[in-house]
Amino acid sequence: MTTNAGSTLTPTEKMRATLGRRYAAEKRFQAYGIVAILLALSMLVILFVTIIGNGMTAFVQHTVHLDVTLYPQDIDPEGTRDPDVLAKADYQSAVNDAMYSLFPGATSRQERRAVRELISPGANFVIRDMVMDDPSLVGQRVSVRVPLASEYDQVLKGNVDPAVDFTAFQEGGTSVDWSLPPGERLISEDQANYLQQLIRQGEVKASFNRWFFTNGDSRQPELAGIWGAAVGSMLTLMVTLALSFPIGVAAAVYLEEFAPKNRLTDIIEVNINNLAAVPSIVFGLLGLAVFLQFFGMPRSAPVVGGLVLTLMTLPTIIIASRAALKSVPPSIREAALGVGASKLQTIFHHVLPLAMPGMLTGTIIGMAQALGETAPLLMIGMVAFVVDIPGSPLDPATVMPVQIFLWSDSPERAFTERTSAAIMCLLGFLILMNAAAVLLRKRFERRW
Amino acid sequence: MDTILVIAAILVLAAAGFFTGRHRAVVRSGGVSRSLHSLPNYHGHFVALWGAVPALILLVLWLPLEPILAMNAALDYFQHHIAEANNLETIRQSKLALLLSLSPDATTIRLDELKPQQFALLQTEIRNMAAGGASAGHAAFMQEVADVYAGYRETSYILMFAACLAMAGVGAGFAWSRIAPDMRARNHVENAIKWFMIICSTVAILTTLGIVLSLLFEALRFFSKVPITEFLFGLHWSPQTAIRADQVGSTGAFGAVPLFAGTILISIIAMCVAVPIGLLSAIYMAEYADNRVRAVVKPILEILAGIPTVVYGFFAALTVAPFFRGLGESIGLDVSSESALAAGMVMGIMIIPFVSSLSDDVITAVPQSMREGSYGLGATKSETVRRVILPAALPGIVGGILLAVSRAIGETMIVVMAAGLGANLTANPLEAVTTVTVQIVTLLVGDQEFDSPKTLAAFALGLMLFVMTLCLNIVALHVVRKYREQYE
Fold first, then answer.
1. Between β-strands A204-208 and A60-69, what pairing exists: parallel, antiparallel or unpaired?
2. Among A163, A229, B83, B429, which one has the highest count of C-beta atoms within 10 angstroms of its own C-beta?
3. What is the CA radius of gyration of chain A?
4. Taking chain A, what is the end-to-end CA distance rounded to the nearest angstrom?
5. What percent of chain B has pLDDT over 90?
6. Are B470 and A314 inside 8 Å of each other by CB?
């Protein structure tokens, strides 16, 4: 080995000299990786913290205790107790009277209006539903808790109106900064006084928000619930599951076990892979043009939503099912064929049961995807404002992600809170489904 | 009408067919099951299939035909009994005159001379009235027409019920009569199942065909109203066509370049977030992290991929956009509250797991021998990654990134909720831009009439979106597959 005459350093020395730099570069590179992972994880944490931080308060609703007298002559003058009559009766005046009786001092029109606006404009529906459930309440004095109007609920939760120091407010203090111009305050001075009076009388209580879990959509945030959307999601998923599982499994079995290797099956394979990557909104356009326009199916119906989502999740299910079939060793098939089973008997009696856990896992993951999907359902009109709980796949309905989208558009702070709470419920369902898929895989996974 | 009842009846008949078929097979074999070619159950299935399938096919054919026939009968009745000269005065005073845009001096009504739009209106009205809808404003004879329609549908339903049941009975009876010990029932049943599976596996092709045809058909209708060159190269997008001709801005402009530019801008921002974070975390996971860290961090990162996009959209609109706006204000920059930056960044977060899991796959697929060769020459880990592994894995990584780009282009909810609506041709990420998917949603949500260029434009945009993502996918899948073959 000859050394370069011009340099006094040997290669070893040269290498040693750069070693420090190279190790530093190594450290830096490793740090980049850690930073990248931490960044991704912190995004996830921020996402969850904002959603949970915003949404937790939606599970609590402030209610006012009212003693409502239901005079028969107002509600059911003929005494038939006919559900139709009860449903159409006027409960508002009974509610108003109960509110006025809490504030005997409020006599002017303006004051009475302020009193009325303390509770939800939908309070009469709460009473109506009670009476519909139990018609014998007519003619009685019933004690009921109705929701506080959403503005005051938000004030008490400390979500809005910075002018109000809400903890002091709740304790009956007067640390309300009335110097702010009225436009920047959500509630007026009168209303704040009435509310304080109610609190002092002990009529206001924060309790579990049952309306959120039992109601459909509503224009009044305090009465808006996700039950309607949850039922819509269930109906849509039922249609999707009923169609996509049999079709997906049958297609996978044919392609994996029977299909000859030819041009057609090649095209089908490429096709399935490409379909899996088509943007979901395109499936919505397909549904709009084919199912609604061409076949004239009803708009906003879970059955159409289910059809569109079926087409969307089929590739996922087919790909997962084929992988599950592939993992069943050929010796199983050969053994069955060897004792005289037909090809179909082999598959239905031996291969399918072994591949089923894998297929079910793929199906659950596909269903979870379908549950979170929004865009294609917007295209086929599932964005309608639906108050009633859908009873069949043909009724107009909306689904949970679309409900989230609709609420997120509303300016009220109370809807922001409910949007986050709805997201928490949706994520809860998704976690359940994915956990089921993981469990299934762990429990039935076989190594051959 | 209750189609479900018909289906249930057919299925009950088929189930009965199964038991009688199985029983007959046993009886015909004289109790010696060895003499049967197929197991008794196959004979049962054979009868059940013959009972159910032809009847269901008949039902499927009948269902779309029924309302058409009934409508024809109702319109016929309208033409021959209602649209007479002595009824004309009553018609003029009813809602019908408005509906048919009857000219005041008309002496006859000829349905075949009506404009398609009026014709459709008349049909809808008849349908609504037959379903018990409001009949206010109509003369009494409209109810007659509706009754004819409803009557026909009722008769048709009864006929259909009878025909389907008869079909099921005949089919099952035919199969039942064929049952004999040496009948190859199993082969028949297996053939039927095989055909069912073949039909199922063509659903994927039919879906693609349906997408292509419906998009192409509607897009061509759009291009017959708006020239394709204007759509592809026009710089101005304002799809609001006016109802009256004299309204301001009555001509909608359909130049889609601002939408393409907006889509690309947001996708670039998303990739700027997703590619470095996704790639670096994939490298760290594949090359540095020990198994315990991998087992924990990888599933957590994958949660990001499982979160519905509507949640990301809400996060972008509620948290990220105001954050950037506030940040911009504090350093004196004017950031739009619907900035491309916020939408793009959140979209990037969504795509991180996509990039990282695809890169992880290709990096771990690089043969161990290449790493060992590099270590043997004295390279450090990072040098190995940069000089050996990344070049070897590059085609796969590029393929994965292309797939991620196609995802970003097709992503809808994040941009619908966090990006703007106004078409704005700009490269400034702090301004609001709109994208192809946002416009599709805004054009199609709500009431739509199917002939206006506004609605059809959505399908033209959808076609562009489909073609773009399809090209990206084909290239990406090709690159990934070609690369995989090299090392296998």
1. antiparallel
2. A229
3. 32
4. 56
5. 38
6. no
Chain-chain contact of B281 with A46 (C-beta, under 8 angstroms): no
Select from 1.10.3720.10, 3.90.1150.10, 3.40.50.300, 3.10.129.10 the CATH code of A227-444. Answer: 1.10.3720.10
> What homologous superfamily is domain B253-487 in, according to CATH?
MetI-like (1.10.3720.10)
The secondary structure of residue B431, as a DSSP letter, is S
A259 vs B contacts (CB less than 8 Å):
201
Name the helix (H) or strand (E) containing A145. Answer: strand A141-147
d(CA A10, CA A3): 7
Residue A316: which of B305, B195, B274 has the closest Cα? B305
Whether B304 contacts chain A with CB within 8 A = yes
Strand partners of residue A61: A207
Other C-beta atoms lying within 10 Å of the C-beta of residue A246: 12
DSSP one-letter string for A324-381? HHHTS-HHHHHHHHHTT--HHHHIIIIIHHHHHHHHHHHHHHHHHHHHH--HHHHHTT
**pTM score over 0.90:** no
- For residues B96 and B78, the answer to whether their CB atoms sit within 8 Å is no
Single-letter code of the amino acid located at A50: T
Instruction: Name the E strands within B318-435.
Output: none
Domain boundaries, chain B: 3-183, 253-487
Residues 420-459 of B with CB under 8 A from A: 437, 440-441, 444-445, 450, 458-459
Task: Provide block-wise average pLDDT over 10 residues at a time, chain A (448 residues).
Answer: 59 84 92 94 94 89 86 77 78 85 82 84 84 82 86 75 51 49 60 79 84 88 90 94 95 91 86 89 92 83 93 94 92 94 92 92 93 92 84 88 91 87 94 89 77
Report the distance separating Cα B38 and Cα B44, nearest Å: 10
* ipTM of the complex model: 0.88
Domain boundaries, chain A: 11-56, 60-209, 227-444
Question: Is the distance from CB of A300 to CB of A386 less than 8 angstroms?
Answer: yes
